[in-house]
From TrEMBL, chains A, B:
The protein's name in its UniProt record: Nicotinate-nucleotide--dimethylbenzimidazole phosphoribosyltransferase
GO molecular function: nicotinate-nucleotide-dimethylbenzimidazole phosphoribosyltransferase activity
Record organism: Yoonia maritima
Organism taxonomic ancestry: Bacteria, Pseudomonadati, Pseudomonadota, Alphaproteobacteria, Rhodobacterales
Any Pfam family: DBI_PRT
Swiss-Prot/TrEMBL keywords: Cobalamin biosynthesis, Glycosyltransferase, Transferase
Catalytic residues of the enzyme: E284
Principal EC category: transferase
UniProt-listed GO biological process terms: cobalamin biosynthetic process
Family statement: Belongs to the CobT family.
Catalytic activity: 5,6-dimethylbenzimidazole + nicotinate beta-D-ribonucleotide = alpha-ribazole 5'-phosphate + nicotinate + H(+)
Biological role stated in the UniProt entry: Catalyzes the synthesis of alpha-ribazole-5'-phosphate from nicotinate mononucleotide (NAMN) and 5,6-dimethylbenzimidazole (DMB).
Biological or metabolic pathway of the protein: Nucleoside biosynthesis; alpha-ribazole biosynthesis; alpha-ribazole from 5,6-dimethylbenzimidazole: step 1/2
Listed Gene3D superfamilies: 1.10.1610.10, 3.40.50.10210
Length: 316, 316
């Protein structure tokens, strides 16, 4: 059972040739991973990076430094291997899949109407769920969608409370005037679609790629595949699950703390300590993909090291 | 030239398909690496991890939670592939070499006499210098030596000033009484061997593995091989170079901040911001080896990504 694997991993960890606790968070990570995989001596052989792309009607409000056509251009870049996430997936031995979600049909501008219909949000959740390979042993969900830090800020504000301005950052790099406009747009959307239901917040304020990430993270839970969360947008999508079901993100760690202003606040709300903090703010799953190396290193130490008895080392 | 490569890497970075600065520190790392390698589009194909082991006469003062024979036992563990650093080297594609330095002849107890003669410290420096493969493209230096956090604390206090207690931590895990005794031992050594010469501090208070690490880091500089510094002991050895020659560590980044109490202070003194902070305190080069993945990811993005023009993406 998984509890047995968790206990077995703890026992094993205490016998490895190192002072107790000397591998710090790597020890906790390996034991956590072993528990979810139901194997006290696991390996990471098949990480999967899944990228979802969507377009946002709220771009009409002038919230991004880039034009909406960049979403589709970047999808082509992913498919041709030219983006950061391609290099990181390759560097850490992950397969990478890209799902472009109805790019020609942006969501509705959430300052005017719900971003998605029920059918649209359910479809995106299902695409996300189906995108997870049950044979993979680690999942990173990434996204691309011009305008989606605005959408994510609105989802976070609706689900977690607080002022719109506290959840609004510069995204790809808007100036001060753009930032102020963005916060107003977020506040307007949250006021228009007030609801205590996190999935309703996802529908009315989110986007297809956010819903698909939530679906994928839920599918990974079902398959007991551990997840590395990426930055602000991924965590906003994940927050809807955490709010809907207690412990829904217990199978997930935070890959990094992004430079997007509100990500630290979001990680705190989720109770997640980031593995990395290197000032990334790219999305695409890039920060989480970088953290695959950390988790691989943790599991490699845990499962590959000899015990004091095996190595003939005095245990102090 | 290297200046040309640095400039070329900066130019390239500004054209890659991402918002400016969105890869955070990864961008700085890649440009720094490109400059040292003299290649605006470099690759990391041959990282080398070199471990030096030494024994310490100061163990007679009861400064460690482990007995001195563990140094030799752990060298055997390295040679048989059972230690953490073996797993991490393998996980990040690094070769690993182990040099046991006169383990049967510990240094002198520095509370009584200089730890090494001039011939001994020069020999250790030379072994370190010769251990670096000039064909490698990244260096991690690690160490094993029961008692060497005491030695490193004394070197740091002598070279950088401040109270012995500020540089003294729990190492492999001494209790409060052990910690107090350790600080007294450090203070006694520093008082006995007062000198403003960093290499004299290395000789009188250091150990063979510390001197060898200093030699290896200097050799890497000569070969323009970038270095990832490990924890407290590695950084204490490196500090003697920084104190001897301004900018002697410009080819080095700090791989991580260790849980050893004084490492944060030491990194500040060296002006190095750590890449990782995951509570490791194992030595062996483990924290630096884990950071190989970060540097590989940075260089992979820099050299593998397409430019806006190549990918046909609008630059905003």
């Amino acid at each position: 059972s998984h509890a047995t694997a968790f206990q077995g991993a703890q026992d094993r960890n205490s016998q490895l040739t190192k002072p107790p606790g000397a591998l710090g968070r790597l020890e906790d990570l390996a034991i956590w991973y072993a528990g979810w995989r139901g194997n006290p001596k696991p390996q990471i052989n098949a990480p999967q990076v899944v990228i979802f792309a969507g377009n946002h009607g709220v771009c009409a409000q002038g919230v991004s430094a880039f034009p909406p056509e960049v979403t589709e251009q970047m999808v082509a870049n992913f498919e041709h291997g030219g983006a950061a996430i391609n290099q990181l997936s390759k560097a850490f031995g992950a397969t990478m899949n890209v799902h472009a979600l109805s790019l020609d049909t942006p969501t509705a501008d959430f300052t005017q109407a719900p971003a998605m219909t029920e059918a649209e949000v359910v479809s995106a959740l299902q695409i996300g769920w189906a995108a997870v390979d049950p044979a993979s042993d680690l999942l990173v969900t990434g996204e691309m969608g011009i305008g989606n830090t605005t959408s994510a800020a609105a989802v976070a504000a609706a689900v977690l409370g607080g002022d719109a301005a506290d959840w609004t950052g510069r995204g790809t790099g808007v100036d001060d005037a753009g930032l102020a406009r963005k916060a107003e747009v977020v506040a307007k959307g949250v006021a228009l679609h007030a609801s205590s239901d996190p999935l309703e917040a996802l529908r009315c304020l989110g986007g297809r790629e956010l819903a698909a990430m939530a679906g994928a993270i839920a599918a990974a839970r079902h398959c007991r595949i551990p997840v590395i969360l990426d930055g602000f947008i991924c965590c906003a999508a994940a927050a809807t699950l955490a709010k809907a079901v207690d412990g829904a993100l217990d199978h997930a760690v935070a890959g990094h703390q992004s430079a997007e202003a509100a990500h630290a606040r979001l990680l705190t709300a989720l109770g997640k300590e980031p593995l990395l903090s290197l000032g990334l703010r790219l999305g695409e799953g890039s920060g989480a993909a970088l953290a695959i190396g950390i988790l691989k290193g943790a599991v490699a130490c845990h499962s590959g090291m000899l015990t004091f008895a095996e190595a003939g080392v005095s245990a102090g």
